[in-house]
Amino acid sequence: MSRNWIFLRLALQNLGRRKTRTLLLIGAVAVATGAIFAVTTLLWGSQTSMTVSFSRLGADLLVVPQKTLVNITSALLTAAPTDLSLDSSLASQIASIPGVSQVAPQLLLRTDQSGYHRPGTMDHSVELIAFDPGHDFTVRPWLVEQLARPFQAGDVIVGGGHPEQLNQEIYLYGQKLIVYGRLERTGVGTHEQALFVNFETLQHLAEASQSGNYPLNFSPGQYSALLVKLKPGATSQQVQFAILAQAPQVKVITADVILTTVRPGLTALVQGIWLLMGAILLGLALMISVIFSAIVSERQQELGLLAAIGTKPKQLIGLVLLEATLMTGGGGLIGTGLGLGLIRLSQRTLIYDLNSLGVSFLWPGAWAMAELGLSCILGAALLGGLGALVPAWKISCHDPSELFG
């Protein structure tokens, strides 16, 4: 234990000999670590925000009956109410087409005199959208709040324009529904004002509506639209032609080209940033190796004296590596604090501007930030050790008499 303390004290004394050089190296490591910490945090937030945003973009293709009128803006999220329908067998046919990732069926109905009311109204008509939670990728990504349990029959998700709260009871055709979740405002009227249920719930409502004057026109196995998500690399034109070849009686609406081209572009940008950060780390490791080569060469007589009094080669290597890890680890600690300052600055500038434009940015949680900071500190220390390993190994291979020459 005392020997370890002696080596630690000796390493600290050696670092204090050339204070300017030590401080400059610590500063270089701090700047690099701070930049990496800040950029990694921003990349994490960008990738998470990008994933959430892309999951909310809706479908790449929308399949509807031939005579259906479609608003292209809302088509990326949902179809429009219509009396026309598609057979459920078409969903499995489209899902088997190469290049298709997911197929989400939806059925849209407008309810009249269902018993649903809002403040100031006695019987408010509402658009009812049935979807399959197991295949959905256009509804649930918009949830901003939900109950802490799976979505089930008897639950309803309300659009952003509804006043209902979570776990509140609402009634349609005398059937009690529980508000399971609320969607974020999408700017699309269908989503803003609609109620979303699964097909089992819709069937119960349809059965209960038969006793009224305005029964729901619901036939099991019939859909208003099929929303299609493509696999990475698949082109909408190829899948569109394949769908029309199998079902010429339908109409296929494609998303804007920018939606299908921006994903690989942003992914390539993120990969380029990671490569740049890797280059920074490699350059930093080479710089540390060069600096410690000079330090070891400058102190070869001192190291030779230590070897002459019985210090083992492994201990000499450990001494040099300890100095390097202390120096770069301290730089990593300072750099993490610097990175937090850069993140704080970006919150007041770039992220503020994005939020003002309605572009949300998701930050890592406190524990994730702490883990990332600790990883940066340990990574900087490890990088210092790796950079000094070759010079330390070379000096340990010399005979003590050679080091005095």
From TrEMBL:
Q: Name one GO cellular component term.
A: plasma membrane
Q: Does the keyword Membrane apply?
A: yes
The family database entries (InterPro entries) matched by this protein are listed as: ABC-4/HrtB_transporter, ABC3_permease_C, MacB_PCD
Record keywords: Cell membrane, Membrane, Transmembrane, Transmembrane helix, Transport
Question: Which residue numbers delimit the ABC3 transporter permease C-terminal domain?
Answer: 275-396
Q: Where in the cell is it found?
A: Cell membrane
Please give the start and end residues of each transmembrane region.
21-44, 273-296, 316-345, 365-390
How does the protein's chain sit in the membrane according to the entry? Answer: Multi-pass membrane protein
**MacB-like periplasmic core domain: residues covered:** 22-244
Protein name per the record? ABC transporter permease
**Species the sequence originates in:** Pseudocalidococcus azoricus BACA0444
Upper lineage ranks? Bacteria, Bacillati, Cyanobacteriota, Cyanophyceae, Acaryochloridales
